[in-house]
Amino acid sequence: MGCDGSFSKVRENLGLGFKGKIYEDRFLLVSSNLNLKPFFPEMGTTAYVFDPEEWVIVMTLPDAVRTVFRLKPGEDAEFAKEEENVRQRLRNFLEADVNYSINTISTYFVHQRVTETFRVGRVLLAGDAAHLNNPTGGMGMNSGIHDARDLSEALIKVLSGESDNLLDEYAENRHKAATEMVQATADKNYSDLSQSEESERIKRNNEMRDAAQNEKKARAFLLKTAMLADRI
To answer: 23-111: CATH homologous superfamily?
Structure first.
């Protein structure tokens, strides 16, 4: 099993490609001990702050808070990574000046890719070794967990004497999920987050408010986001 990440040597040694695209945007990731509760008391552990000029992703981990900003077109990455510039960006975000320490600062591009097959003979691929997508919505880790679940179930059955075709079904089903569902959903999440057209932002916000206020729609949204809609 090749579960060795986006730079998978298993995939490379199989001679498989990794076709896809690189998003034009570059991202700035800041890891710190910033306390956001006074500013956003109802914020969950993962939050997407919509803004037409500079949207923000906030992930609260046990030992750090990760804040992701999109760099503006033409913005110099090295300049953006300078600590004072990072602190100014966070001041603008919070509209306040607070004390905190920074752990790490980095910039990166986001890829969206998938290999042509998840199975070659006795070798099977899963997770980032098989597919990548932009991080909005947490679809990458989530889909990797689904890969692991489906592959483990198929392997248990095959090792118990059932048809080897179950491994082909795994490869076909998860490849289809990666291309037709995960990438499409991740693209929509990214579009929703970065939307600059006022009419589209209003439409997006109304749809989300409607879902939040309707238990049935909220459940459907959560099941789709967790990629469980076709399993429950």
So the answer is: D-Amino Acid Oxidase, subunit A, domain 2 (3.30.9.10)
Q: Six-digit token pair at 203? A: 């439409």
**From-to residues of CATH 3.30.9.10 in the chain:** 23-111
DSSP category for residue 231: T
DSSP 159-219: HTT--THHHHHHHHHHHHIIIIIIHHHHHHHHHHHH---HHHHHHHHHHHHHHHT-HHHHH
| CA–CA gap between residue 189 and residue 23 (Å, rounded) | 14
Say what the pTM is: 0.80
Contact 11, 127 (CB under 8 A): no
CA distances from 168 to 56, 59, 174 (A): 40, 36, 10
Q: 93-117 burial by CB neighbour count: b if 16+ within 10 A, else e?
A: beeeeeeeeeeebeeeebebbbbeb
Spans in the chain with pLDDT lower than 50: none
Task: Dump pLDDT digits (tens) for 66-124.
Answer: 999 989 888 999 999 999 999 999 999 999 999 999 999 999 988 899 999 999 999 99
List the one residue out of 22, 218, 170, 177 whose CA is nearest residue 110: 22
User: Among residues 69, 2, 1, which one has the least CA distance to residue 32?
Assistant: 69
Residue 32: CA count within 13 A, CB half-sphere: 20
